[in-house]
Hints:
Elements: E1 9-14, H1 20-35, E2 39-43, H2 63-79, E3 82-86, H3 96-107, E4 112-115, H4 125-128, E5 133-135, H5 138-143
Parallel strand pairs: 1-2, 1-3, 3-4, 4-5
Amino acid sequence: MNKQFSQPVKVYLAAPFFSAQQIQKVEQLEQALEKNQTVESFFSPMRCQRPEGLAPDVAQYTPAWAKATMENDVKEVDKADVIVAITDFDGQDTDSGTAWELGYAIGTGKPTYLLRYIEDLPTNIMLTERNTAFFTHPEQVEHYDFLTSPSIPYDGKYQ
């Protein structure tokens, strides 16, 4: 999907953040998005594990916390113009949460952009074929023009 924008975009950053390595990748992408002049703002779920309005006595990893966190993430995807996702998951295919966020975004007509740090890792065709641009390094995201959204096709191995 190649959609053009007239003003800087709001980004939803979809990515796993369950290990130190994954957190480092998210932080690198956050820095790239902060430097990109065509990005107005971004939402990183890693930074919002306690949604606004959730009662202070609700413990993390309880059903009430899970529902509030999920609903908040859906609300943020809805508010975003585009989704930028890290698709490698510690040497495996995409994290299930990231895949869900991408599928939801595609279903609502939002453009998606994928970043895979491990270049030779196969990527599922369900992600690659509806994607606007495919990146292999955060610096590419830092310099990408989200306003014109030029297509950068996936050229790696398929799964």
